[in-house]
Amino acid sequence: MSHSMGFTKVLVANRGEIAVRIMRGLRRMGYRSVAVYSDADREALHVRHADEAVHIGAAPAAESYLSIDKLIAAARASGADAIHPGYGFLSERAEFARAVQSAGLIFIGPDPHSIDAMGNKSASKRLMLQAGVPCVPGYQGRGADDSPTDQDLQREALRIGLPVMIKAAAGGGGRGMRLVHDADALPASIASARSEAASAFGSGELLVEKAVVDARHVEIQIFGDRHGQIVHLGERDCSVQRRNQKVVEEAPSPALDEALRQQMGEAAVAAARAVQYVGAGTVEFMLGQDRQFYFLEMNTRLQVEHPVTEAVYGVDLVEWQLRVARGESLPMTQAELNARRRGAAIEVRLCAEDPSQDYRPQTGRVLRWRAPQGDGVRVDTGLYDGLAISPFYDSMQAKIIAYGDDRESARNRLLRALDETVLLGVTSNLDFLRAIVAHPAFASGQFSTAFLNQHLQQRHFDAATPLRVALAVVALYLDDARVLRMNGSAGKARIRRRRPACCDMAMT
Amino acid sequence: MLRHGDDLIRPRLTVVDGRRFNVTVDDERIDLQVIESTPTGYVAIYEGQHRRFQFVRDGDALWIADGQATSCFRDRTLAPVASAAAGSDGRLLAHSDGRIVAVHVEVGQRVDRSTPLAVLEAMKMEFQLSVPVAGIVESIAVQPGQQVKSRQLLVQIKPDAA
Q: What is the pTM of this model?
């Protein structure tokens, strides 16, 4: 460990569950933590979790979590000597990593040149083709000064053959992405993808790729250190997606055997090596029915779904990030990692959204949150009773992860954990998640990214069945009776006004 | 009277000795025997099985989790008569807190059912908003870039006479 790489206090430039999770890792490794927060997050859990907290601005992310100047100033003010970017926000912005390093602070992530090389989907695809990593047939222009126009995209889409994916070159998380089946729909899809990309990523640059039908989304976790070593920690299967955003993730993938795992692992390491990668990264692939796999993109950060990898390898990836950032060698070799892998883990993303209304985000106050407990169950979250969920940030509120000796025991454990989970006050996708994990097609392990469209068209789970109405009526009655007991005659008067009679009553 | 989404429900409750409950909903009768009750939930026997339910009240809202689904009912016992189905009166309301990205129409413009009227961004996603009626744009209450609250009026359409 070189002296210049030492640090003692880490500012976490993020919010919500990932900020809380990183702080847990910092505490475990003996580092002090600094939280940052916007106006909307004064009461957020990550603020309570940190040793110190610095207010950095107004609720819109552009004025707080996306403001490089404010984050550097917060690090200076608090005396933090390193910054962990988490995922999302500025985590994959090379200019942020550069600004952190120029300020004399340690950036807990890859070097800016690696982020640059992978940050643009078009440029990274050109690089991967050179490095011999298999890529999906498509068109991404010839270079940085030749990004495809609407006409180019239309022409190339028809040349490649429909269906195609239109993608934001600067994109991620499914935004600025459109699947197009019909030539007639091309102009509108290109226009809306461009507008969404411009507002989400500050760049409207697009590329077009052949849509690989019935493919799985399989990604490889890689890790590099400053001594030139790069290893992989196997795959995660993230094929259950809605609107190109992941909903359920698992390790290992039901579709991989040891030979394919080794092949994809080696391709991922080659991809990382091509950009001299340091730290935690993820190489995403599409895996076809024919076992052909294609490079999609590389995420140059810790991934949302990293806990499933931690579960099957028994490692703490935030600890690894901290060790690599302070100049240590990777804690384990590839052979040691391969020998450690054991069991299966499945994660679901609990989001404040309404699956029955096209996944519309929901805001409001959390009236009750009960996380599931028990062996083999992990919950990463920023939720607590009374938290106000604001419209400013991502709708994901918690990740529930179950581990087991094999996939079926992990799945059963997850089902039981979801039955135990309670989130009242804000509509969430909890019931939807339960339906996915319980579905026979999910249980079989045989599915593609089309899973939700093929198997779960029905997304309305809270139908007012007579039983549910009865449960609600009895709850109202019991609650009224309790208020009446507590408040005596005053409560009685209040309830009398509300209900015609206590018994044999007609609630009309 | 309870509201669930857009549906109004008129259940009928009979209480026997403070523990046994018969609820009739749409001619179907549900029998529950409550064996334990706390401020946050209760345990009841339904069809021979012990089941635990968690609930919480917030104003007229009752949230209840039954292990299969999470439901929100509104107690409309004292509420005024419900208004028309969402948007059918020509009022485009924000479906959640968020930011107006674009307004696609002008005052006086004729619109069809489901013509995109405005785009709302919430939690980093964009939503095309429309109302299920045809008519003339009467007024526009918001501008692009403006933050809006859930159920805030965005655009008023004067619906065509039926």
A: 0.83
